[in-house]
Give the backbone structure.
Amino acid sequence: MKVLLAVLAVGLASLHAKAESPVSTVTPAMTATAHQLLDLARQGNQGYELVRSLTTEVGPRLAGTEAEARARYWAVEKLQALGLQNVHVEPFQVPVWLRGVELAEIVSPFPQSLTIAALGGSSSTGEQGLEAEVVVFNSLSALQQAPRMQVEGKIVFIDEVMARSRDGSGYGSAVQKRRETAYVSQKMGAVAALIRSVGTSSHRFAHAGQMRQANTGGDLGVPTAALAAPDADQLTRALGYGKPVTVKLVITPQLLPRAVSGNVIGEIVGREAPQEIVLVGAHLDSWDLGTGAVDDGAGIGVVLGAAKLIIDQLPQGPRRTIRVVLFGAEEVGTVGAKAYALEHSAELPDHIIATESDFGAGDIWRFDSRINEQKVLQLAAIAKVLEPLGIASGNNTARGGPDLKYLREAGVPIVSLLQDGQDYFDFHHTADDTFDKIAPHALDQNVAAYAVFLYLVAETTADFRETTQDLTNIN
């Protein structure tokens, strides 16, 4: 990591030593081309068919598995067929976690089965499972503050409801129980843990998702699973009778040695400044319960559909290079994102801006950025062109998608094209994340927005980077 920071520091110093170019605005000719892209995208594009192809021909794509490898082969073929250049895979190693048997039931006082999904990285109960009394808490914080004697020898149950919101803001707080409950419970002497699913649906689908660690050494935590929301409600009602409630839990996941994953990359090479990179990403892997349509097959369709429109309309390419990165192993801890940042550390000063599609396929409604405050007006001209799509200008505190974490921390400017996520967490990480949840008209709007944004930011000479960077946060 020190090598990465040193290279970044040298590169950025060189970049900032250059004289700043005059501010470049969106010209009438650029606006006209952008409107052509917008109109073509709204008439239909390849995005929807790409999602259909990925979710049908590959299906679930768990990180490090043979299915994720098939997804990379699929991606290479598609990028080449769509006309992208320099298509290749950048491999890296990733821990592998495989789901096993998943059974849970209330043994007493009201015997009945429960619908669960083991959390990614969870340890196993063994084939015989385990049986213990349940102790309930309304939050991870409440568990952390409880006396050890209240928890020891029991199955912890965190019954915290996630708030539904358009921008998905309820996820940040709700997901902490998924990441940490197994480890906190282990330290307090519990034998296992259950959490209410991190999701907003009332349907009987449990939501999977990664815990904090994935076969990286250290404490594995107690065996932990998510309950479908109706089952969490049922368990809470049972506990409400004031009698001890005993649950039997059987989960048998396997933690395997590291295997190959990889990022798939292709480019629309810039005609005048090919070294300057506009990055657009989505992640190729998915959880194993559904077919990964909403998360993140939709993102794959959006970014590839947008790239295809630009290739068809601009045979010579825009000024700058548009680099498409289909990240591997996002779901198990943004492993591909970190691998990309390390592999391309010397190039990061030339990354003009980055964006990612990883929030389903609802209509994009807001345009947020994270750029130099003094350069916001330059980006506002681009945001203006997006207004006919119903996209409003937002704030300058964007975090971008998960795979942009390390780029953002390295000072790469970020843009978020925020989708309407009112129902995103109904399907997120469940068996119900399937192709039928994708609305073609909404996907067309997404493709239009990404095509317009990518073209304009790649065609302009504007620089959006801060004049000084903090390079100490990459970890």
